[in-house]
Amino acid sequence: MTQRIGVFPGSFDPVHNGHVDLIERARRLFDVLYIAVLYNEQKQALFSVEERIDLLRDLVGDSGECRVESFSGLLVDYARERNATAVVRGLRSGADFDYELPMTLMNRRLAPGIDTIFLLPAPEWIYLSSRLTKEVGSLDGNLSGVVPPVVLEALRRKLG
Ligand code: PNS
After folding, report:
1. Which of 19, 21, 44, 72 could lock 39 by a disulfide, CB 3.0 to 4.6 Å apart?
2. How many CB atoms lie under 10 A from the CB of residue 144?
3. Alpha-carbon distance 139 to 63, whole Å?
4. Are 49 and 11 in contact (CB under 8 A)?
5. Rounded distance between C-alpha atoms, residue 124 and residue 50, angstroms
6. Is 43 annotated in the active site?
7. Which tens digits make up the pLDDT trace of 52-95?
8. Whether residue 128 has its Cβ less than 6 Å from ligand 1
9. Annotated catalytic residue within 57, 80, 82, 92
């Protein structure tokens, strides 16, 4: 039987509860889900790619059905290499849709066999973003219940 393979790409700097919610939803849709952390030297990040991968593996494991990897270059090339038929992205708002639409259409043009699937996180995570968690964390705000405990600890270590 053909396996349903999906890719959930992102920066995950750091992973937060909205990501975890989306990963759980996406796992139910695929036999194998690759969580793909973008390796981008040009983009300033708080956590290294290795640290981001470690945090994700801590949270969702790294098994046959759910694998955490890094990728660089074009997302569709990576998805093709993994024999994926779909890319999963989260949508929280119309602003997200405006950001996603051009990428989705370009990806479709580059790889017509790979579709993008949009998933909504649970309503309690609609406002969450990695940028916000870093900002609140850097100002010593309380992030418990917003990011998983292992990420809370990593943010505390990183931000002092
Ligand atoms: O979590 P993010 O930062 O919103 O994720 C963005 C990501 C990684 C999905 C996007 O930047 C991406 O796909 N980058 C890979 C390079 C690429 O394929 N660019 C062309 C997109 S049309």
Report:
1. 72
2. 8
3. 36
4. no
5. 28
6. yes
7. 999 999 999 998 899 999 999 999 999 999 999 999 999 999 99
8. no
9. 92
For a ligand 1 pocket test, name from 15, 23, 56, 75 the mutation site with the most ligand atoms within 8 angstroms of its C-beta: 75
**Residues contacting residue 109 through CB under 8 Å, at least 6 positions apart:** none
Contact 86, 7 (CB under 8 A): yes
27 has pLDDT over 90: yes
For residue 12, which atom of ligand 1 is closest to its CA?
Answer: 1
- pLDDT for 43 beyond 90: no
Nearest CA to ligand 1 atom 6: 10
Cα angle 30, 36, 103; round to 5: 90
- Ligand 1 probe mutation, 38, 72, 87, most atoms within 8 A of CB: 38
Q: How would DSSP label each residue in 26-45?
A: HHTT-SEEEEEEE--TTS--
Residue type, 78: Y
Q: Looking at this protein, which amino acid is placed at residue 86?
A: A
**Structure tokens, 140:** 């010593």
What pTM was computed for the model?
0.97
Is residue 79 in contact with ligand 1, taking CB distance under 6 Å? no
Q: Identify the CA nearest to 107 among candidates 128, 132, 86.
A: 86
25 is catalytic: no
